[in-house]
Automatic annotation (TrEMBL):
InterPro entries: Restrct_endonuc-II-like, tRNA_endonuc-like_dom_sf, UPF0102_YraN-like
Keyword tags: Endonuclease, Hydrolase, Nuclease
Residues annotated as signal peptide: none
Family: Belongs to the UPF0102 family.
Gene3D superfamilies: 3.40.1350.10
Protein name: UPF0102 protein TDSAC_0873
UniProt-recorded Gene Ontology molecular function terms: endonuclease activity; nucleic acid binding
Recorded superkingdom: Bacteria
HAMAP family found in the cross-reference section: UPF0102 (MF_00048)
Amino acid sequence: MSNRDKGNIYESIACNYLIGNGYIVCDRNLSAGVGEIDILAKKDNILVLVEVKGKSSEKFGHPLEFITKNKLLRIKKAYNLLLSQGILPEHEIVRVDLIYFKANSEYVHIIGDDWIL
C-alpha cells in the first residue's frame, strides 16, 4: 500500500470523525502548488483547515513533530492562494486543526486555537 493510499484511509477516517462531531466536510486534498489542505471543514461559522498525519510507528518521530512552523506556513499560503483564486470562501475565522493517528490507529484531534490564520 502506498503512502498516498494510507493517507487517503487516514483522511477518510478523519472525515467520518469530523462529520460525527458536527463538522461539515466541504472538500479534501486541495492542492495549490505552494501547499495542500488535507480536509476543508466548517463548524460554528469557522472555516477549519484540517491537517491529517498518520504514522505506522514513531520510529522517525511523533506525528506532532511534523507540524512545523514551515508546514503551517505552507497551509496558510495554500489557503491564501485558493482564496485569491475564488476557490475558497472568505471567513472571518479560519483555523488549522490537526488530527493525528497513533501507531495503534487511535487518533487525536487537536483544535488549533493557537493556529488561527
